[in-house]
Fold these 3 entries.
Entry 1:
Amino acid sequence: MEEQGRCACRLEDRPHYEEMVLETMLYSARLKERVARENSAVIVAMSRLMAETFEGGGRVLFCGNGGSAADAQHLATELTIRYRSSVQRPALAAIALSSDSMALTAGANDLGYDAVFARLVEPTAGRATFLSESRQAATARASRMPSWQHRSGD
C-alpha cells in the first residue's frame, strides 16, 4: 500500500519527467516571446485605456473561464492591492466578475451560462472598461472594452 502524500513515480522515470518539465517551460517561454512580439502595441493600448478609466473614476472588470478566471482574479487583485511593495498608491477599482461563485452558479442555472457575465455587467451602466468575450453586452451598455482572447489550445 502506498503511503499517503508520497509520489508514486518510479526512480527510473525521473529523467523523463525532467525532460517534460524542460519542454513545458521552453514552450511557455516561446509563447511569451511570440505574444510580446505580436501584441505589444495592443497591450500598451489596453493599458492606456485602463489608465484613462481609472483616472476618470471608472472601474475595470475582468472575467474568464477556467484558468483565465484565475488570471482575472489575479489581475484585479494586483490592481486593487498593489503590484510591487515598492509602489505606494491608492487602490484601483478593479473587479473580477469570475470571483463570485454564487453569482456564477445562480446565473448559469437561472439565465444560462452564456448570459452570466452579461448579467454581471448590467449594473455598471457604461462606467467600466470590460475585458471579456461578452462584448455584445458591454456594447449595449456603452462600455469601452478591449478584449484579450485566445484560441483553444494556445
Entry 2:
Amino acid sequence: MHTLSHLDAALLLCGVLSVGASSCTSVEGIRGDGTPFQVDASWPQVLSNNMILGQVSGAAVDSRDHVWIVHRPLTLTAREAGAAQDPPLSECCIPAPSVIEFDQEGNVVSAWGGPDSVETDADGDPIRAWRTGERWPQSEHGLFIDHEDNVWIGSNGAYDQVVLKFDRDGRRLLTVGEWDVTGGSADTLHLGSPADVAVDSATNAVYVADGYLNRRIIVFDATRRILPESHARSPDLDRRPRLRRRPC
C-alpha cells in the first residue's frame, strides 16, 4: 500500500477544498522521488445527508493511511447552509462535523466535533461554541495525528486560545491553554491563538506554534508542564511592531 507523505496530504487538502466552499486550481508536478502527481478532483466521495465543508484549515494522515481534515463550519454563509437555518432556506445544505476521517478511496470513516450551537454578540459575531457541554473553537486551525492516532487541533478565533487533544472517536482527552485567556509570549500558562501543533513520538513533547497573538514555539509534556525548549525567544518579542493581517 502506498503511504501518503506530507506532500501528498497537502495536495489532498487542495483537492478537499474543492468539495467545500473554496476551490483550487489544477495542480500537477513531480515528487522528490520522481513520482508524478495530480490532484484528483473526484476525491473524496460526495458527503452524505447534504453535508458540505467550510474552510478546510488542516489535513493529516494517520497510521492506517487514512486522511483526516478539519474544517470551519462557521465560515459557511446562511445561504450555503440553507437547510440548517430556522426556518430552512433551502433543501441543501448542512455543515459537516468539523473533523472528518476518510479512507484512501475517499469514503467517510468517522466525523465528529463542531459548533452545534453558537452564541453571538450584539453585532451577530460568534463568541462561543459548545459541544456536549464543552466549548468548541470559533475558528479551527491546524490538525495533527500523533503516533497513537490521537487527534490534535489548534484554534485561532478571538475567544479560543487553546489546543485540544481527542482520541480518534472524538472523546476529548486534553485541553492546553484556557478559553478566552491570553497573556503574551512570556506567559507560560496560556496560549495566544495557537496555529498548529506537533507531537514528538520519542518524548511525547507537544510543540505548539503560538501563534497569531503570541510569537513563539512553546513546548509541553504530556501533563501540560512547560519544557525548557520553549524559551528560545527574544525578551522584547511582544514589543515589536505587529504586521496588520487577517488570520487565515
Entry 3:
Amino acid sequence: MTLPAKIPELRILNMETGETMAFDQLIVPGQERWDKVYPKNLARMLDMIGDEKMKVVAYLLRKKDTMNLVSATMREISAGTGVSLKTVNKVMQTMQKNDFMHKVKAGKWRLSPRIICGGKQSIGMATINYYDNVD
C-alpha cells in the first residue's frame, strides 16, 4: 500500500524559466530505495535473447541519457539495430500507446521513469511527476 508522506510541500525548479512545479512524494512502507538496473547490461541481455522488437528496446536503453531522453530518429534506430523501419515504427507506437515512453519532438523520445529510473525514491517520484507533466 502506498501512503502519502507527511512532509512539507516539495517543488521542482526549472532552471531556465524559474518556474516551479509541486510534486507529491509517496512512501511505500519498508521500501526506501529503487532496485538498480544497469541499462547497458540489460540491453546486452535483450540483444542476446530477444527478437527484432527487443533489439529496438535494447537500443533505446543503451542510448538514453540520465533524464531518460533518447535522441534518435526512427531511421537512426533502424540503422543502429538492423531492424526494419516498419518494425521500429510498430515498437515505438506500442511503447507510446502503453505509456512506456512518449515523443518529446521529432527525433526525441523520453522513456517512462515507471520503467527505468535511477536514484532514491524521492528523486524517482519527482522524475515521474516531471514525465507526466512536461514534454
